Amino acid sequence: MKLELKNIKHTAWASEETHCYQASLYVDGKPVAIVSNDGHGGCDRDYAHPKFNDAFSVYCDKMLAVHAYFKSLPNTPSEWCADGLPQELEFWCADQVNDWLSARELKKKLKKEFLFQFADKVGVFAHKTRPSLIADKATILNDLPFDEALAIWKETA
Predict the structure, then answer these.
(1) pTM for this structure?
(2) From the centroid of its chain, how far is CA 77?
């Protein structure tokens, strides 16, 4: 089962305990549901996507299959639970929103400044101009493919 969260709309000012967001859930390349959260700590909601043209019972069956898919996955290790935390659509959606926010932040920073990481220092550093003297001592994120730069960004930021 291939799951994607697309058309993410996030409202930072309304996010208190959880993300305030709305997004389209795609299952195997087709829009199935709109998932959202008000950002006040409650559970996510989902309802049929406007482009989902099948009957409501088909939508229910599809969402039951999505939830069954997450139940079939192994628990996520956790320091709070000996057996780990069960996988859930809501946790997956929160992770997708976090990834989307990280990518958006990195894109903005890459447009404004040069980001680099030293092999012997922790963190990502920024400079307004290209740091020519450190090119052989540091990895410049602007020169990397975006996915590699994002992985470094998420590790250190």
Answers:
(1) 0.84
(2) 19
